[in-house]
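Hello again,

I reread your note about wanting to compare the complex against the isolated chains. To keep things tidy I'm splitting this into two emails, and this first one only covers the full assembly. Below are the input lines as submitted, including protein chains and any nucleic acid or small-molecule components. They are followed by the predicted structure of everything together. The single-chain runs will come separately.
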Amino acid sequence: MIAPNVFEERTGQILVAGQAGSISCEQPSLSGAVSQRACVFCGSRVVLYPIADALHLVHGPIGCAAYTWDIRGALSSGPELHRLSFSTDMREKDVVFGAEKKLELSLRELIAKYSPAGAFVYSTCVAGIIGDDIEAVCRRVEKDVGIPVIAVQSEGFKGSKKEGYSAACKAIGRLVGEGDTSGISPLSINILGDFNLAGEIWLIRSYFERMGIQVVANITGDGRIADIQRAHGAALNVVQCSGATMELAKYMEKKHGIPFLRVSYFGIEDMAESLYAVARHFQDVDWQVMEKARELVAGELAGLLPEIKELRKKLQGKTAAIYVGGAFKAFSLVKAFRHLGMRVALVGSQTGTEEDYREIQEVCDPGTIIVDDSNPLELTSFLKGNDVDILVGGVKERPIAYKLGLGFCDHNHERKLALEGFEGMRNFAREVAATVLSPIWKLVPRRIGNTTSGTVYSTDPVEGRAS
Amino acid sequence: MTASAKTAPSKVREPWVSTSNPCHQCRPLGATIAFQGIEGCVPFLHGSQGCATYMRRYLISHFREPVDIASSSVAEKEAVWGGGPALLKGLRNVTEKYGAKVVGLATTCLTETTGENLGMIIHDWKKELETKPLSGPTPDVVPVPCPSYDGTHLDGFQGAVRAMVQYFPEPTAPHGGVALFPGFVSPADLRHFREILSAFGLAGTLVPDYADRLDGPALAETGPLPEGGTTVAALRALPGSSIAIELGKTVQESLSGAALLESAWKVRRRRIGLPVGIRESDAFYSILEEVSGRETPQELQLERGRLVDACVDAHKYLSGRTAVVFGDEDLAVGLVAFLTEIGIKTTLVVSGGRSGRLESEISRVTRSFLEKPPRVLDDADFRDLEECEESRTADLYIGHSKGYKLSRRRDIPLVRVGFPLHDRFGGQRVLHVGWKGALQLLDTIVNTLLERRQEDSPVGYAYQ
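Full-complex prediction:
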């Protein structure tokens, strides 16, 4: 058995690399299993939140707005309207009599106060159930205020985070094509699926700009409504976090004829390959782009690799576990850990597809456990059973690791450390070392070797204390 | 809007329809915290998966502990055809895998709106168990309605406490214990209540007590559920208590567990403010003197003595200073009481709560010291706070970490208390209650002001 605490219904959602079989995924979460997943609203909020000059109004009771108030490191170089929390804060009478009027008044007063470049109105569970016609309200307000006012169909219960991504992509799709595309270079891209956590999109943009490529729109990190409106003028869509924005890329290909590339900016190989892939795309337009990409990669690696080599000496032989939201990150992380000489014992994601998991299987060493939509109980078993030294995940996974007495790296939306790009790989390696090599692990119960929860004292000799 | 919001304060408040930067959370959140305070309990939300996950993240950021909240993961099918089957499956899963002895079952806005009937579903669950028994003991399932559109996280907390009193008590011979209803306080506060009761030689049951589950030790072996919490046996024996002490006077009667214990089981109830500061704490200790029949033990009296001594030492640093207090109503009342005692003038009190009692409570704790009570806004958000002139001129903000943004913008220092504390370490260990808690608050407040004065000074005195 892989772990003693697996729910019977979930056995198909777990497999071992190197063994035959495919994974069951894209299922609704099992009731009562304490899934680490969120909801449709969360998916939409994740994608749209970083658009910094838009008003983000949550139409529902206060919770949905309260729990998403300024909780991510999605930075802006200008306006920071996205970091405020706006809600219609539905009350009982709104649920009984409908809250369209309240929504309309809220929209109008907030637009008048903040003069946003656009507005997104998020539907929530209750708004969906009582049947408020959010679309109609948005249309009405849009007509008067002269900015795009877009309804996001993000009722929490209507699927998982993925359906939320889809609703967000539809909302962005409504903006694309509305702006003036004059002056856009033939060597131009949109960056899709990067949310500018800890300023990452600035780093990635700078790489592309050093290759002579113009970035038209950030979708959505440090995003602006006007940029997105002219995004159809770009020659190529470069898509990271494919789960979140692939639908938009496909839509833009169909509607506006823009091809797309799937990339990842995490880890050395994937970052370099992302730049090369874009360079290859443009090499017929400008043969120098590839040369610039090579120069850039060589220059960055010259600084990075010696440091990685040093850290590898200390980390060699340690064991990692990965549990992240989207599967794309997992591929890159497996490779990144290899550079650090570390074994990956577990790879899991909340929302991976069958194809994602097939790819993970290919990239992982035999014996690695692969899991879809896991829960604290299973994760705890996996971590204990495989003598893991570090878990990579989000804030919800952090206490699972710490309580067991092992290291943790935050690779989710709250992070304040850039992990993308070559610089991000350097940060990642330092972060891994900082947690894995902490002296505290010598003092936690798990490492002292006791099996009870009683107090056990360190056996390390301390000067001046009787042994 | 509550009655009080419609009276004096609302006249000067901008009539906003929307809520911006809320000063409260939704009702089910509070219920999940209260349910953490029962031994072997899994809080369970009947609703969409996102609610449980968002709340876990919110709580984990404050407590820095694993916080498991189960969900029935209601999807479209369940929203339309009913979530009963999903809930039955979930109840089975948390019992079989997490070994839940108790399931604290709260609805959410979704399942309240679709009209789910928890009573009926629990009835079905019992019937199902007759034909499909569990492999272990059957858990107690404690239901509580939590319409997120009605009330705040505090109402959810109190509602869950009342649900415990509704569910567990059994006829019990008098045992002389104290039933203490502490309200939503920190794990450090709960531990201090235990210490105080034991110093008086009193046996007590805290309803609830999540101190060990939300602030636990490092472990070699972690079970599926953290250890600690008020035992089911203690909750069943509540009717044998000699007294029910309820802390917090803004608790609504209809949500009060102590009120139910009094009406249904004739346990004498005493209701006082949350014991924050000198006078509000005095009231608490004096009840304990009465119940135990003995004087406050020497070591506690010394805490009071040191507190008053420190307040004297500090008074000139504090004289004439002004503060804005925000957060949960009962904590705000206690803080204002204490600030008033030490000579800091509270000019504005803001809460997302809407008990309707905040204004009168603030007046109660300030009137013997102040000519004019501070301005009070309830059912309010941070935009309301920001728009008040008092929030520009204050020397100090006192409240939870959601006030940081304004504190930063206005360059007014923030003393962090209550919940949530997402931007500081050790939120679960902040002690607010009792004389000991007041002394810690005093140190923090004085040092915050001294630090500011030192930083602002061109001289940079190395002594104060």
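For quick reference: Chain A has a mean pLDDT of 92.

B.
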